[in-house]
UniProtKB/TrEMBL annotation:
Chief subcellular location: cytoplasm
Pfam families (UniProt xref): Semialdhyde_dh, Semialdhyde_dhC_1
Family matches, as SUPFAM superfamilies: Glyceraldehyde-3-phosphate dehydrogenase-like, C-terminal domain, NAD(P)-binding Rossmann-fold domains
Localisation per UniProt entry: Cytoplasm
Pathway membership: Amino-acid biosynthesis; L-arginine biosynthesis; N(2)-acetyl-L-ornithine from L-glutamate: step 3/4
Residue ranges occupied by any Semialdehyde dehydrogenase NAD-binding domain in the UniProt entry: 3-142
Active-site residue numbers: 150
HAMAP family, sorted: ArgC_type1
Protein name as annotated: N-acetyl-gamma-glutamyl-phosphate reductase
Reactions that this protein is recorded to catalyse: N-acetyl-L-glutamate 5-semialdehyde + phosphate + NADP(+) = N-acetyl-L-glutamyl 5-phosphate + NADPH + H(+)
An example Gene Ontology CC term for this record: cytoplasm
Family: Belongs to the NAGSA dehydrogenase family. Type 1 subfamily.
Function: Catalyzes the NADPH-dependent reduction of N-acetyl-5-glutamyl phosphate to yield N-acetyl-L-glutamate 5-semialdehyde.
Source organism: Extibacter muris
Amino acid sequence: MIKVGIIGATGYAGGELVRILSGHKDAEIVWYGSRSYIDEKYADIYRNMFEIVEDSCLDDNMEELSKKADVIFTATPQGFCASVVNEGMLDNTKIIDLSADFRIKDVATYEKWYGIEHKSPRFIEEAVYGLCEVNREAVRNARLVANPGCYPTCSFLSIYPLAKEGMIDMNTLIIDAKSGTSGAGRGAKVGNLYCEVNENIKAYGVTGHRHTPEIEEQLGLASGEQVLLNFTTHLVPMNRGILVTAYASLKQKATYEEVRAAYDKYYDGERFVRVLEKDICPETRWVEGSNYVDVNFKVDERTGRIIMMGAMDNLVKGAAGQAVQNMNLMFGLPEDEGLAFVPLFP
Ligand SMILES: NC(=O)C1=CN([C@@H]2O[C@H](COP(=O)(O)OP(=O)(O)OC[C@H]3O[C@@H](n4cnc5c(N)ncnc54)[C@H](OP(=O)(O)O)[C@@H]3O)[C@@H](O)[C@H]2O)C=CC1
Ligand SMILES: CC(=O)N[C@@H](CCC(=O)OP(=O)(O)O)C(=O)O
């Protein structure tokens, strides 16, 4: 049994980790870390866990936890993991960080977009960006995994085959993305109140969303070019789900079959990426509660542009599911262990 500790187990991403890992046959949760609910029964906070989880919450003492756990998930705000990780901890245990602390390789870029000082720049180089479909081999041997952001996961996987094959002009790329409110976490914020979100849709973070440099970095690595793009996020009145619609000019005319061949080249055999049939657009409801990302595209012959689309559950493939997929790789387990959920509907 893999002994698992979760710091931030009382947040939305942490709660989803608990749900997924409770059904994982090779994992046992030994630490439900919290900051505000220490000594309270976990199932009193999340009643879906009644008679499933008997334990109470502990604190966020990573030093002590690292002596007990084979792997620690930090589902905590930006800056937490970087402020506590040290060499001794990584000698004892593996860490999968769900925050952005180790995703961006350039410290100055991280500090500029996140507005905080990076407390452990020495571990940035070592950290592996945990996008399993691309970095599978590196993840297997990692001590520290930077679990990708929710919007970056969906954006990247929607665009990756065409960026990698050099089929689109990266300078023309525009990404429009929409998220359900669980993406903003469980903390109380006026902007996330029912009356503010219900019956409404709005853009936010326009020209300044902190996921922009992460997407640019990863698409830059895939395409071999420096990427500068427009990325606009929207908040929509649903609990879970991310929908990405991305636009770019094709470098040369391409048929449906040629583009489809590029997607198949990278995603054939990928357990969690589904390339939909011709003309079917991804929808969040068909992936909800699952670790799938549904992708598809449409060539607009009139404008010479291609529209790339993706749908994903932000809490599963966008956070906890992908983190467990990374854990499976790090411990030599089948990649889909504990993740074989069929999407919910309705
Ligand atoms: N929500 C999502 O869809 C996604 C989230 N993420 C990332 O996962 C991380 C957690 O996000 P999310 O679950 O949404 O956030 P929440 O606000 O829902 O949960 C945050 C968790 O961290 C704990 N916490 C808060 N402040 C501190 C602190 N200073 N020190 C230690 N623990 C603290 C909270 O404890 P307590 O409850 O006890 O206060 C809670 O358990 C973030 O880095 C986020 O960016 C990544 C991808 C998607
Ligand atoms: C709806 C909503 O507010 N979404 C969040 C998603 C951020 C998130 O989850 O953070 P990481 O993926 O970087 O860890 C946002 O836009 O900031």
